[in-house]
Structures are given as C-alpha cells and as structure tokens.
C-alpha cells in the first residue's frame, strides 16, 4: 500500500517539494482531468468545495486511477468524517479547525485502526485506490500507509503548534494562510501579507522541522508555489480549480478583446 501512496513516497524520498492541486468542483471527469496534469496529489475539498459525500467517493477513485494520490479535506475534526474519507480510499486526510495537541491526538485516533486508534473497519471500497489489496491486507497496512495532515489556521493552533507537531501520527502541518491571517488579526488584503503572518508561517515550518514532520502550504499560483518551495515547504498546493478556471477564462477573453 505504501508504494501506491504517491504523496507519502514523495515526502519520504525528500527529493524536493511535492506539488498538488485543489478540487472544489464535483465530477469524476473533472477530478480525472486535474489528476492528469502532472501533480503528485489532488485534494478533494469537502469543507469549502461544492462536493458532497457520493461525489467525494467518485473523485477519490478517479484520481487514484490516474496514479495520483487522492486526499480529502473534511469539514471538521469529526471522527465520522475521517471515516467517510478514508473508507472512500483517500490516501490521506486534511483536517481544519484544530486548536490543541489533544485535538490532534483525537484526530490520529480516528484515523488509525486498533490498537493504535479507534477507526471502524468494514468498508469494501478503499482497497481499490491502492494495489487492490484484500480486506485483511488493507487492515494490516493502512495505519502506516495513510497520511494525517493537520491545518494550522487558528490562533490557538499557532500558540500550540510545537506540541501539535510532536503528536505521534501527525504527518504534516499544513498552512491555510487566509484563515491563519484572519484568526491572528492580520488578514491577507489584496495579496499582501502582514509581517506578523509571515513570522507565524516561519514558526509553523520550524515546528514541523523540529519534530521531524513535514510542512505544507496552500498557494494560489505557480509563482507563489515556487517561492514557498524555496522557503523549504515539503507539500505545496499550487492552485485550486476555482482559481485556475476563472483566471484562465478571464485572461483568454481579455486577449480575444485585445484588452489584455
């Protein structure tokens, strides 16, 4: 199973950052199109995206069929949401709205089968997104083959970031800069980051590195992604579909009108 988790393999290899894309629109063909663009992973966003449970299942399977790791961002740190995403075959979960190390421990428990956690066993679906393991093989290998990615986006999570990073089973600290900026009183305005937000981002990166974990960052352009790769981030979302589509469509229309 671990060999089929492209993102996990990329993070372990340490040959540079792993670049991914962000899916907010539903549809298996849409998911497949994103997965065929060369990224290591695609995150199916069920927090802010227009993606329901059945559509999440379809997207996860379509992405994995392209040899790309499907991740799922769940709406909140709820055990049943973790279970739905992993039972669909996600190679990892991205989880928002953590505040403390206890929240991180609760999340890890929800994502691991006993004795390391409390995840329920019984879905017939996730084996198909790896190497078609049988159910017993999935049970035996899943705990070491799936990624638990926690978002550091609240003021409290920032204050507790060193303790969160040390929690066993947390693999990646992932920064959503917009919510982080909002929650520490320094929102990103017209793309401009306050110095305090930049210092907070550096603190999170240092906490991840200090605990032997990986750090991730949500970007809105290739240029920004390249910059954060140079800063040392390991897992970088380059762009979301709902950023890329209107940006390209608007630019194309401007060129057609001769107004660009």
Topology:
Layout: H1 6-13, E1 18-23, H2 28-35, E2 41-45, H3 53-65, E3 69-73, H4 79-87, E4 92-95, H5 101-111, H6 135-145, E5 147-151, H7 155-159, H8 161-165, E6 172-175, H9 177-183, H10 195-210, E7 214-218, H11 222-231, E8 235-240, H12 241-257
Helix pairs in contact: 2-3, 4-5
Name a few traits of the molecule:
single chain; 260 residues; alpha/beta; eight-stranded parallel barrel; 12 helices; 8 strands
Tell me what the structure shows.
An 8-stranded parallel barrel has the order 1-2-3-4-5-6-7-8, surrounded by 8 helices. Strand 7, helix 11 and strand 8 form a beta-alpha-beta unit. It has helices at 6-13, 28-35, 53-65, 79-87, 101-111, 135-145, 155-159, 161-165, 177-183, 195-210, 222-231, 241-257; strands at 18-23, 41-45, 69-73, 92-95, 147-151, 172-175, 214-218, 235-240. The protein contains 12 helices and 8 strands. It is of the alpha/beta class and 260 residues long.
Radius of gyration: 18 Å
Terminal residue distance: 48 Å
Q: What is the average of the pLDDT values?
A: 97
Count every helix, treating DSSP H or I runs of 4 or more residues as helices. Answer: 12
How much helix is in the residues? 40-55%
Unreliable runs, pLDDT <50, ≥5 residues? Answer: none
Q: How many strand units? A: 8
Strand order of the largest sheet: 1-2-3-4-5-6-7-8
Approximate strand percentage: 15-25%
Main sheet properties? 8 strands, parallel, barrel
Order of helices and strands: HEHEHEHEHHEHHEHHEHEH
Structural class category: alpha/beta
Shape: globular
